[in-house]
Amino acid sequence: MTSAARLRDAALLHAKNICLAHGTVAALDGVSLDVRAGELLTILGPSGSGKTSLLRVLAGLETPQTADALTIDGADMRAVPAHLRPTATVFQHYALFPHLTAGANVEYGLRVRGVPRAARRAQAERALALLRLADKYDRRIDQLSGGERQRVAFARALVTRPLLLLLDEPMGALDERLRATLEADIRALQQSQGMTIVQVTHSRDEALSMSDRIVVMHAGRVVQTGAPEDIFERPSTRFVAAFMGGGEPHRWPHRADRPAWRAHRLRRADLRRPVDRRTAAAPWPARLPRRARGSCPAWRGRLRRQSAGRRRAHAELPRHHAPD
Amino acid sequence: MDAAFRAAARLLLAAGFGITALIYAPVAWLALLSVSADPLSGWPGGFTTSWYASLSASLGWRAPMLRSLGIAGIVAILCVLAAVPPARAWPRMRRGRVSFAALILLPLGVPGIVLGLLVFTTWRVLFGVHMGAWSLVLSHFIWAYPFALISMLVVTLRTDPSLAEAARDLGAPPLRVLCDIELPALMPGIVGAGLFGFLLSFTELPRSIFTGGQVQTLPLYSFAQASAHSSQIKLIFCLNTLISLASLAAAAVLVVLLRRRTA
Ligand SMILES: Nc1ncnc2c1ncn2[C@@H]1O[C@H](COP(=O)(O)OP(=O)(O)O)[C@@H](O)[C@H]1O
Ligand SMILES: [Mg+2]
User: Fold this and answer.
1) Strand order, beta sheet including A87-90
2) What band does B156 get if pLDDT is binned at 50, 70 and 90?
3) Residue A50 counted as domain residue
4) SS3 state of residue A76
5) A51-60, A95-104, B24-33: which range is least confident on average?
6) Are the beta carbons of A112 and B171 separated by less than 8 Å?
7) Which terminal residue of chain A has fewer beta carbons within 10 Å of its beta carbon, N or C?
């Protein structure tokens, strides 16, 4: 048995070659991902790199154009609708139901599963207590602070006992102090409940401080996967190096990596493109060149037409970054 | 600059109160006339409750009233049922939003009499629609639907689509998502759409003149009594006062209910 096959057998989640396009924008371009049971995996990448899209595909809220495999705990999920998947999501802006109390929000997942009233109330109270919200059961959502809403969203996802917990920028809107407590909360929950968590963030520090493994994404593709130390100390591409700390790649071991190196040169067309405020200062191109794509047959023709103009700009660039 | 701004603001406020007074004053005047000895003179005086006594003794207005209530109720339900699906779809439409809205709203520019005539001439001849209760429902529905749709759109455009996704993610099948999450969020729009349908139908006259056939609604009855100079005419003052007060009360109750639901 190869080591790759062994990993796949141990994996709680196995996704292979997932391609998702919104119109002509390729949000996910051949993404593969394996998550082991009980691990906290962080998907790290600049905004617009496809992190939210990937979580939505895992949750079943988005249907990819292609997916060679998508299994959770060995079961094929590709034809399973969102409400039957063993996942639960904490959304980027929480998406708490405004017409229900905090307690009723937490109970909702149990209510649709037909859990009797008394039992679901007990479970909801326990989940709220776990997140230090025991006295907020009857509060309306608009009477809660940002950090409290965050934790209610958490409790709501936890009570359904998902096999896989998906967190979309869970600390995005919180200040430093709340961030630290919540980070500890997430870690404690994951360890005490043996929960498998996939977390999305654009913050390097968040990813480094709490992950078992990090997957770095850029322009809809996975560019590196590894333990936090590996990614920090041995970034495989200039993009990852810049994103993780601003330095050069640690080393450049294999010839096979060279196309990737070439892929990340700055190109004039990319410099002219308007970019997101958060990534405006980033010294890497906002998109991979066309050559880096290819695993998603569904839209190859369409994107080729689109990128004809950009290819011309590419040809005019000075060559000082070229390897060899 | 600042002073001018404040003066303008005060002027606008005064204008607002003036317009509000223009709306409520006739209702108050009507109420005064209904308890006057000679309402037809146009001036209150010699106060009496005798017209109310004869109204309660008279029977002519009861059948039209019940008929109007029934028709308005059906129009209200139709408006809600027909406004919810397109209003839910509208925020998700990629293309053609503006032309869709224009298509729905343009009929508002068709004068009521013309619409009544259209239903009377074309629908009757082309589709064999019999002029009566159902043609009334149809013409009232055509009249009220754009208002109902706007009322729904205001709500659906503000509703966060990620709530429905969160519910699905938590394991709710589509029908549960609709009942538990979407309908409560849409409730203000539903109430608004129903209210528009009901009130616009209940008070509708120009279209009803053509589409009513032999069926008499309350506005048609009032209109007929008033133009015939019948002895009933003084009762119309009482009747309209009561109806105005009832609809004002209903609107007030709904506003309170909606505030409580959406707060
Ligand atoms: N509903 C959508 N319609 C069109 N484009 C979208 C949609 N959702 C996401 N995208 C595009 O897909 C890309 C990836 O987005 P997303 O997954 O939200 O990135 P991230 O979460 O990493 O910031 C972006 O370029 C974004 O503009
Ligand atoms: Mg995102």
Assistant:
1) A87-90, A164-168, A196-201, A40-44, A213-218, A221-226
2) confident
3) yes
4) strand
5) B24-33
6) yes
7) C
In a domain, A322, yes or no: no
ipTM of the complex: 0.74
Task: Output the domain CATH number for residue A198.
Answer: 3.40.50.300
Same domain, A50 and A171: yes
Whole-prediction pTM: 0.73
Q: Please tell me whether residues A52 and A91 are part of one structural domain.
A: yes
Do A273 and A170 share a structural domain?
no
What was the pLDDT predicted at A3? 53
Same domain, A263 and A228: no
Asked if B171 and A97 come within 8 Å (Cβ–Cβ), the reply is no
In this prediction, residues A273-297 reach a mean pLDDT of 42
Contact indicator for A218, A51 with CB cutoff of 8 Å = no
Please tell me the residue having the least CA distance from ligand 1 atom 18.
A52
Please indicate, yes or no, whether residues A208 and A292 belong to a single structural domain of this protein.
no
Cβ atoms A54, A48 nearer than 8 A: no
pLDDT digits (tens, 9 = 90+) for A235-259: 888 888 888 875 444 443 343 444 4
Alpha helix (H) ranges present in chain B?
2-34, 50-57, 62-89, 97-105, 112-118, 124-127, 133-158, 161-169, 174-176, 183-202, 206-211, 218-227, 233-262
| Total number of domains constituting chain A | 2
Query: Which atom number of ligand 1 is nearest to the Cα of residue A51?
Result: 22
> DSSP per residue over B47-109, as a string?
--SHHHHHHHH--TTHHHHHHHHHHHHHHHHHHHHHHHHHHHHGGG--S-HHHHHHHHHGGGG
Domain presence at residue A323: no
Cα-to-centroid distance, A260 and ligand 1 (Å): 23
A100 and A185 both lie in a single domain: yes
Evaluate whether A280 touches A51 at the Cβ level (below 8 Å): no
Range of the domain at A226: 3-245
Place of tokens 């707060």: B263
- Mark whether A123 and A222 lie in a shared domain: yes
Ligand nearest to the CA of A91: 2
